[in-house]
Amino acid sequence: MENKLCVMTYVFGENYQSFIPTYVYSVWKAYPEYDTMIYIKGILPEKVESQLAMLRENGCNNFSILPAVEDVGLSESALKNINVRKALRWLVLPKFLCQYKAAYIGDIDLFICREEPGIYEQHEAHCQFF
Whole-model pTM? Predict the structure, then answer.
């Protein structure tokens, strides 16, 4: 059976990596039935790794930290542009998304709170409207 929703985000730069544990925690607490996938470039700091380990120890196991997709067919000069890199999150669709009904691509520095209707239901209704 398909999972309902995958919450995805991309972390651009080390300054934003400190938001990862809070983001993962907020999705887990608000929507424990959703999976969270976070793409990063480089290696996570030890402090972030230990915070993620604490989340796993407390039952939060529905998230993955993945290496950013680098080979997307764009030139080196295009990939040096931060706006081009930010746009990639809307263009790179990994095969694992086929197991989900939808993907929600968000920003790492936003805290996810449960809403009624939920994220999936809101966006599904929006799609039906259009």
Answer: 0.87
